[in-house]
Every structure is written in structure tokens, then in C-alpha cells.
Specification:
Order of helices and strands: HHEEEEH
Radius of gyration: 24 Å
Strand content: 5-15%
Shape: rod-shaped
Distance between the termini: 14 Å
Oligomer: single chain
Number of domains: 1
Low-confidence stretches: none
Length: 109
């Protein structure tokens, strides 16, 4: 009975570690994708072959500067989330190895 429980624990920790590594990869991918819709809507207007920076100012704030800050904040938050998920994946992987070692010890008694 305890052997099947140990194997179940190994499977669960393996699923956790794979999930965390996938989420880390996904957040890393998102950190490299700029918010293009904001940039197109507020900063760069294309007229013919020319791209004009509209320099829109709303309530004393330059929208282009705001969009740049938002882009940087978005990149940083996704990067932090990616590192956090990766570390959680490493902890889950370590727990998987501990559970597998414990199952191995119990099966060799």
C-alpha cells in the first residue's frame, strides 16, 4: 500500500514541476512580446509612407512616455513571474526526487 502511495506522490510532484516549468516558459515568452496595440493607437500614426509620432498629451502626461513605461513594467512583471515559476518548478522537481528516493528505499526493504 505504501509503495503505491509513494508512486502517486512522485507522479503528483512530477505534474507540479512540469506545470511550473511550462508556466515559466509561457511568462518568459510573454515578457518578450510588446504591447503593440497601445503603441499603434497612441504613439505612431502612419500617413502614406511616413510614420508620425503624434505626441499626444492627456492631462499633462505624454502618452508615448506612458506607453513606454507601461511596456517596461509589463516586461518586468512577466520576467519576475517567469523566474518565480522556474524556482517553483525546481522546488517541485527536488520534491519529486525526494519522493522517488523514498519510494525506492521502501521498495528495497
Amino acid at each position: 500500500m505504501s509503495s503505491s502511495v509513494s508512486i502517486g506522490v512522485v507522479v503528483i510532484w512530477t505534474i507540479f514541476s512540469l506545470t511550473f516549468f511550462y508556466l515559466a516558459h509561457d511568462e518568459n515568452r510573454k515578457s518578450n512580446i510588446p504591447l503593440k496595440s497601445l503603441e499603434k493607437a497612441y504613439c505612431n500614426k502612419q500617413i502614406g509612407n511616413f510614420i508620425i509620432n503624434s505626441g499626444a498629451v492627456v492631462a499633462g502626461v505624454d502618452i508615448c512616455d506612458f506607453v513606454d513605461e507601461l511596456q517596461q513594467s509589463n516586461k518586468e512583471s512577466h520576467s519576475i513571474a517567469s523566474v518565480s515559476y522556474f524556482l517553483a518548478g525546481l522546488v517541485a522537481l527536488f520534491s519529486t526526487m525526494l519522493a522517488a528516493y523514498e519510494a525506492y528505499k521502501r521498495s528495497n526493504k
